[in-house]
Structures are given as structure tokens and as C-alpha cells.
Amino acid sequence: MTPHPRRWRWAANLATLANGLLGVGAIAYVLAGNKLFALFLIVGGMGFDGLDGLFSRRSSIPGGVVGRVADSVSDAITFCVAPALAVAVNTYDRGVWKPLDPWAWGIAAVVLTLGLARLVWYTWRGHSRDHFRGASTPQNALLVVFLVPLFQVPGFLGEQPTLFLLWVLAFAPLMVLPLPYPKIRRGTPLRGVTGGISGAAAVALLVVIFRPAPGTLPYLVAEAATLVGLALLLAFYALGPFTSGGRTPAATEASHAGPG
């Protein structure tokens, strides 16, 4: 028996709610000093954001303005506020990070402002296009997800606050630049790459939240997954504009969902 179209719409709405709630949890964990578990919740939010889009496309009931706004609010919490706080709040080694606190908060404000500006535009006009204009907010959040374990805790490449902040600042403007990026759906050329990115992030965080000792097999697995995930993400940043296939707005958009 095929589920009633309204059930798919309800499922999409519940996925949107779950995304937002995980974002609230991520914010709480950042403020509590457990940044790694906060990043794990952000990645979980991405999973629910993807389900939101999947369920919406299966519903014959078109998404409306309220749905788009709700989706963007959840995205703002999980992919803008939580990653921005992960950049700004550094409680792990205060002696190293405290001198750069003003820069960290300033760059976090840039990330938050650009992310919110992107979501406002997406909700207002961008949803009608068959591609994203600029890097999506989950894409930018994934960059923070990989940079924290590399340059902060556990610091696979050493604790490097300056490099961490420069990476974040360099990539944040891509959220608002008029570069086309593909919406990840069946048949998208880079769908496998995005799957690899998400898988690498999940593996790395599932291991590092248990703080394995340096040099042990779990530590090396997490380090490899983080480096591979970042490499795939950088490949997506570079190749995405050439594979989006979108040049004009789509005639209609089946749903309110999709990562902004």
C-alpha cells in the first residue's frame, strides 16, 4: 500500500523539526565544552535535512511558504548558529586560544551573517532554482566539522588556531557568491562524493568523541577519515560549479526542503 501523500508531508515536517532540535543540542554541547559531540549532532542534522527533501519529493502536496521558512529556520540553527559558536567558543586549551578570542568571535559573526543572508535569499527566491547559488550552509558546516579535529581537538595536524580561523574565513564567502552548486539528488554527478563526505564525517566523529589515545588504531582511523573527508569536500567545492547543470530557475519546486 502506497503511503498517503499527506503522510509524506508530515514525515518531511518531522524531519525538519528533528534537524532543528539536533541543532539546539549542538549549541548546548558547544557551550558545555563538548565540541566534538556537538559536531556529531550537526552531522545528524544533515541526515534529517536530507530526509526532509526526500519525503517532500515523494509527496504530491506542494510545499508552501511556511514549510520553506520552517526548513530555513532549522537550517539556520543547525548549520549557521551551531558552527559559528563552534568557531567562537574555545574552551579546550585556553592558553592557546584566548589571545585569538576577538578574532574567533569576529570570524564567527561573519560565518553567521553570511549563512543567514544565504538562507534568507534561498527562502525568498533561491528555492525556485534547479541548483544552489553559492555553497550551501550544510557544506560550510561540514568544513567546520573537519577543521575542528584537524586543528583543535584532538588536533590531528597540531593545535593551530590561526590556520583554523583562516580556513573558516576563506571559505565562508562562498555561501553568498553567485556560483552554481548542484542539488544532490538521484543522478547528480557528485552524489557519490557527497556520500563519501558524510560517511567520512560520521566515522571520524564516532571515533574521536571517545578520545582515543594518539597512535592507536582508532586514532589513526579517525585521522584518515577526517583527511579523506576534507579532501572530498574540497573537491566538491572545486568541481561543484562545473557539474551543477543549472543555469535558469526551475519552473516549479516540488518541496520546501533541501539544504540551503
Description:
With 260 residues, this protein is mostly helical. It has one domain (5-243). The protein has helices at 5-32, 35-58, 65-88, 94-97, 101-124, 137-151, 161-171, 191-208, 217-243; strands spanning 131-133, 180-182. Strands 1-2 form a two-stranded antiparallel ribbon. Helix 2 (35-58) runs antiparallel to helix 3, helix 6 runs parallel beside helix 8 and helix 6 (137-151) runs antiparallel to helix 9. It starts with a helix and ends in a 17-residue tail after the last helix. The model is unreliable at 247-257 (pLDDT under 50).
Topology order in helix (H) and strand (E) letters: HHHHHEHHEHH
The SS-based structural class is mainly alpha
Q: Give the number of helices.
A: 9
Overall average pLDDT: 88
Model regions low in confidence, pLDDT < 50 over at least 5 residues: 247-257
Q: How far is it from the N-terminal to the C-terminal residue, by CA?
A: 33 Å
Q: What fraction strand?
A: under 5%
Number of strands: 2
Helix share of residues?
55-70%
Number of domains: 1
Radius of gyration equals: 18 Å
Structure in a nutshell:
This protein has 9 helices and 2 strands, in the order αααααβααβαα.
Architecture blueprint of SSEs:
Layout: H1 5-32, H2 35-58, H3 65-88, H4 94-97, H5 101-124, E1 131-133, H6 137-151, H7 161-171, E2 180-182, H8 191-208, H9 217-243
Antiparallel strand pairs: 1-2
